[in-house]
Amino acid sequence: MILAQFAVTYSAPLQEVFATTSVAFVDVLLIVGIGVVLFVVLEFEKRLRGR
Fold it and tell me: How confident is the model over 1-51, as pLDDT tens digits?
């Protein structure tokens, strides 16, 4: 499924069919960074509740 999402986002022929554009590298870093922060916060919360 993830491979299909990358194909639609970054493959030129599929970009034309689905009217999409590539995501800028800086935006990808921001998205991944926010995801990592949320993951760490939620894992920390789970450890606190486990005690």
Answer: 899 999 999 999 999 999 999 999 999 999 999 999 999 999 999 999 986
Domain extent, residue 39, equals: 22-51
Alpha-carbon gap, residue 34 to 4, rounded angstroms: 23
Please state whether the predicted TM-score (pTM) of the whole model is above 0.90. Answer: no
Question: For the chain, what is the domain count?
Answer: 1
Residue 36 in domain: yes
How many DSSP H helices and E strands does the chain contain?
3, 0
